[in-house]
Design goal:
308 residues, single chain, four-stranded parallel beta sheet, seven-stranded mixed beta sheet, binds 6-O-phosphono-beta-D-fructofuranose, alpha/beta, 11 strands
């Protein structure tokens, strides 16, 4: 996508990374700063999510000063992030709007998951010009087929499973349960199954009875599996339950690996760096065209935007 930057008038853009961080947020910030540096735009970054807007706590994101920080490959967020407890408090949202107005911020760009983007929509309804950027390892934001950070999280899961498989194949006959992050969304656990790394994925979206699970596992061993890898979404809160249940029901050793927050950190994959750049370009394009209240997205195989 080539952006015509010849007609961009001075603008001040504020960026917020909200909710759980994800790999690719920094790469997005770097690309947006680069686009701004080619125009008459100032980019500032609020510290700690929406709290930064509330406290008017921000840093300049001048491309020349941040370009040497290797941001493209760093996980987390240099702006820090946070879950803002006042997302549903209309008075607080009005306060944020007033702060943005006072600081002369023309546009607010918010990276985050569903809750963070709903707050962005509220600010839009209050008259702030906004763009939302779906950014969460959970890949569960309505309106987009892909959220920034998901690919890195899947690859983390595959790496953990690959490592387990070395020992699993050396000591056959066991069952391995790998718990993934994702909140109540089973997308990460399911992706590991879809990509052939897990034999079974236990996810809230596809409930299975204990009897069905036992039948499935027995079939897999009967068909020649030397060991079994099961991914389980953390939101089910049944990792320990299944480990004890399967141990008793099948008389097999069952081992648990909980990936935890290691899943959310680390260098973004090449794909997430690519998506970060495309999302930044789409964001800047919306700002340039003065189209507010949208979320950039990846849908049906292409980058674009949809209503927040
Ligand atoms: O940002 C999404 C996510 O990483 C979920 O996958 C996970 O359940 C949750 O955040 C953990 O949040 P926190 O780090 O605030 O406990």
């Amino acid at each position: 996508m080539i952006i015509d930057i010849s007609e961009v008038n001075f603008m001040k853009i504020g960026v917020v990374t909200s909710g759980g961080d994800c790999p690719g947020m920094n790469a997005f910030i770097l690309e947006l700063a680069k686009l701004c540096s080619k125009t008459d735009c100032d980019l500032i970054g609020y510290i700690g999510g929406y709290k930064g807007v509330e406290e008017n706590n921000f840093i300049d994101l001048n491309f020349n000063s941040i370009s040497g920080m290797s941001l493209g490959k760093r996980g987390g967020s240099i702006l820090l992030t946070g879950r803002y407890e006042n997302l549903k408090d209309d008075k607080k949202m009005i306060y944020l709007k007033q702060n943005l107005n006072k600081s002369g911020v023309d546009w607010l760009v918010v990276l985050g998951g569903d809750g963070s983007l709903r707050a962005d929509k509220k600010l839009s309804d209050l008259g702030i010009k906004v763009v939302g950027v779906p950014a969460t390892i959970d890949n569960d934001v309505k309106g987009t087929d892909y959220t920034l950070g998901f690919d890195t999280a899947i690859n983390k899961t595959l790496k953990v499973i690959n490592d387990i498989e070395d020992t699993a194949s050396a000591m056959p006959g066991k069952i391995y349960i790998v718990e993934t992050l994702g909140g109540f969304s089973g997308n990460i656990a399911k992706a590991a199954f879809d990509q052939g790394a897990a034999d079974i994925a236990l996810i809230p979206e596809n409930p299975i009875s204990d009897d069905e699970l036992i039948k499935l596992i027995k079939e897999k061993f009967d068909r020649g599996n030397k060991y079994l890898i099961i991914t389980i979404c953390e939101g089910l809160e049944k990792t320990i339950y299944y480990s004890e249940f399967l141990k008793k029901a099948l008389n097999k050793k069952v081992h648990i690996t909980i990936i935890g927050h290691q899943q959310r950190g680390g260098n973004p994959t090449a794909y997430d760096r690519f998506v970060a750049k495309q999302f930044a370009k789409q964001t800047f394009d919306l700002i340039k065209k003065d189209i507010s209240g949208k979320m950039v997205c990846y849908i049906s195989g292409g980058f674009g935007n949809c209503d927040l």
